[in-house]
UniProtKB/TrEMBL annotation:
Modified residues (4-aspartylphosphate): 52
Record GO biological process: regulation of DNA-templated transcription
Function text: May play the central regulatory role in sporulation. It may be an element of the effector pathway responsible for the activation of sporulation genes in response to nutritional stress. Spo0A may act in concert with spo0H (a sigma factor) to control the expression of some genes that are critical to the sporulation process.
UniProt lineage: Bacteria, Bacillati, Bacillota, Clostridia, Eubacteriales
A cellular component annotation (GO) from this entry: cytosol
Keyword Phosphoprotein belongs to the record: yes
Residue ranges for the DNA-binding region feature of this UniProt entry: 127-224
Protein name: Stage 0 sporulation protein A homolog
Keyword set includes Transcription: yes
Occurrences of domain Response regulatory (ranges): 3-116
Organism: Clostridium tagluense
Record-annotated OmpR/PhoB-type domain positions: 127-224
Length: 224
């Protein structure tokens, strides 16, 4: 079952689209938090997005551009704005189609089905993202995204974040982290781990994530 994420602040229209998508056998999810749609996308992991242009905080073009930094998921714009410049903006920011309001639900469904066939004709694509409270780890690029900031991670920093984010709420022992970091070219001892954790914490603090990694004294680390 394909999951469709609806980014539409008109509640009546959002409800209508939600009902129609469910009727056609889709798993429909609507965005409630319009302040950080990129994080909502990473958390919900949809196969396709229906995106309005006029939204609270930032417009749909802005969020389409941000999502394109981390994913190639199909995006269909729906908007009452119908100028050539709006359509050009939608395509230039990474949109796959543009429908002007008012529109036929049957047309929307047809366009959704066409984009899904095109995007997933060779099977489901595994998620390349992990999200925890608005923090997004990109598994393909070894990068971390939080609000407006995107930072590159070293191999060890990426492995630490991946382990902690996959086990959010659980304390991971220092020994388990050292085993995860240790490979044929990289011997990790207790001191090296401490250096890696401290450098990672400094990077996280620089983008507003102070105390994101919690120390469990005498054992290890965790994300709350």
């Amino acid at each position: 079952m394909y999951k469709i994420m609806i980014v539409e602040d008109d509640k009546a229209l959002c409800t209508n689209m939600n009902e129609m998508l469910i009727k056609w056998g889709f798993d429909a999810v609507a965005v409630d938090n319009f302040e950080n749609i990129t994080a909502e996308f990473a958390a919900k992991e949809p196969h396709l997005i229906i995106m309005d242009v006029n939204l609270p905080y930032f417009d749909g073009f802005y969020f389409c551009n941000k999502i394109r930094e981390i994913s190639k998921v199909p995006i269909v714009f729906v908007s009452s704005r119908d100028t050539n410049m709006d359509i050009i903006m939608a395509m230039n920011t990474g949109g796959d189609d543009y429908i002007t309001k008012p529109f036929s639900m049957d047309i929307l469904i047809a366009k959704i089905n066409a984009l899904l066939r095109r995007a997933y004709s060779y099977g489901e694509q595994p998620s390349d993202l992990i999200e925890c409270d608005g923090v997004i780890l990109n598994l393909m690029e070894n990068t971390l995204l939080y609000k407006e900031d995107k930072m590159e991670l070293t191999k060890n920093e990426f492995k630490v974040m991946l382990l902690l984010m996959k086990n959010r709420g659980k304390t991971i022992s220092r020994e388990k982290i050292m085993r995860a970091l240790w490979d044929d070219d990289n011997f990790i001892n207790d001191n090296t781990l401490t250096v890696n954790i401290n450098r990672l914490r400094t990077k996280l603090c620089d983008i507003g994530l102070k105390d994101y990694i919690v120390t469990k004294k005498g054992y290890g680390y965790m994300l709350l």
